Amino acid sequence: MNAPFRLDATGSDLHGEIRELRARGPVVRVELPGGVPAWAVTRHDLLRYLLTDPRVAKDPAHWELLASGGVPEGWPLVNFVAPAGMITADGGDHRRLRALVSQAFTPRRIACMRPHTEATVRSLLDGLAGHPSAEPVDLRLHYAYPLAMRTIGTLLGVPPARHDEFRALSASLTSSATGPDEVVATRRRMLALLAGLVAEKRARPGEDITSDLIAAREDGDRLSEEELIGTLLLMLVAGHGTTLNLVTNAVRALLTHPAQLALAVSGERPWSAVTEEVLRWDSPVGHFPMRYATEDIPLGGEVIRRGDAILASYAAAGRDPSHYGPTADDFDLGRAPVRHLTFGHGAHFCVGAALARQEAEVALPSLFARFPHLSLATDPASLSPLPSFISNSVRTLPVLLGS
After folding, report:
1. Sheet of 375-376, strands arranged across
2. Fewer CB in a 10 Å sphere around the end CB: N or C, the chain?
3. Residue 174 DSSP code
């Protein structure tokens, strides 16, 4: 048996690493930080199948290594395993939690957020317009981040004064290269901030999802305090990070593929096609932890044993040539519409998918209409990736706004 493939915790070359994984096979034994073993599924169709397989669970009670005490203290991925809430629930418990969350996270509420998103985008572009056109500006920090954070912050009722702290904590939580002391301190601080937010909304409810989740009922049931905070943690980290990475990755992709940018700007291809192709080609999430086998699962020539952990390798599925053909590695807005797995599949499909799409499809055309001569201010190869194999993007995106 081959030794496990050690994933690079710093995410220095996610797509290059995925090519190596794919060369090893459709289902690969990998080693996570701390020597923790897991399986990575590199094929689109196999991952899609696994995401709805009843022999696969999200509840960490099924993880043999965790139950035996084999997960190190301060493990950097603990925040994807520990929170109580939809992300770690299965079956009837998951349906109960999702029903409660759905009462607050409705399509109508997302649609009503569009004017807020449009106003935020106009304000941010006005701010960028005051920047000297010949001096680089970090578009991730000054455009993608405030858009994502203000949107999810408004939805959850997070005071603007706390946005930057939540952003810093979210970045730490999604890093796979964080040290044990920082993991413990970050988790403690994030949970304390969310508990404080819940206490404030109990005392003074507002027109926000946190207040609605506190009040939500399903057959007389409510979210427990632990479930409420776990759900808010998921919404804050995923709702902010996914859009931040999506917008950043989209701008980078378009600026490095001028012919594709021209198709979008001219209207030959819709901006929705840009969003979907970026989600496929450069997923905001690389490998998402964790799922667990509840019995032995033969898959792709391997056997995932009962109690083993599984990564959903969305970035691998997005460029799988067995599903997307020989041009899977190409960024191509003319590609025939295909379904990707970036927002998951099945019962755990991302509740915020429509919001992320809406934000991107407002932010991208507005940016390129306002700054038609936008260009990268550095060699694309010099852009530094986020230190994570979970969150997939770059640390900064320096651009020149143009005259």
Report:
1. 137-138, 398-400, 375-376
2. N
3. T
Give the H/E segment covering residue 353. helix 353-370
Q: What is the mean pLDDT of the chain?
A: 92
Q: Against a cut of 0.85, is the pTM above it? A: yes
Least confident stretch, 93-97, 201-205, 257-261, 340-344: 93-97
Question: Is the omega angle on the peptide bond into residue 190 within 30 degrees of 0, that is, cis?
Answer: no
Q: First and final CA of the chain: distance in angstroms?
A: 59
Number of structural domains in the chain: 1
Q: Which helix (H) or strand (E) holds 98?
A: helix 91-104
Pairwise CA distance, residues 12 & 392, whole Å: 10
Q: At what angle do helices 225-255 and 180-203 cross, to 10 degrees?
A: 110
Q: Which has the closest alpha carbon to 60: 31, 103, 86, 89?
A: 89
Task: Name which of 83, 68, 1 is nearest 36 in CA terms.
Answer: 68
At 87 the pLDDT is 86
Q: Which residues pair with 293 in a beta bridge?
A: 56
Domain extent, residue 262, equals: 5-400
Q: Over the stretch 190-213, which tens digit does the pLDDT of each residue have?
A: 999 999 999 999 999 999 989 988
How many CA atoms lie less than 13 Å away from 58 in the CB half-sphere?
24
By C-alpha distance, which of 364, 164, 371 is closest to 277?
A: 364
Indicate the pLDDT class of residue 183, thresholds 50, 70 and 90.
confident
pLDDT value of position 28: 97
The CATH number assigned to the domain holding 132 equals 1.10.630.10
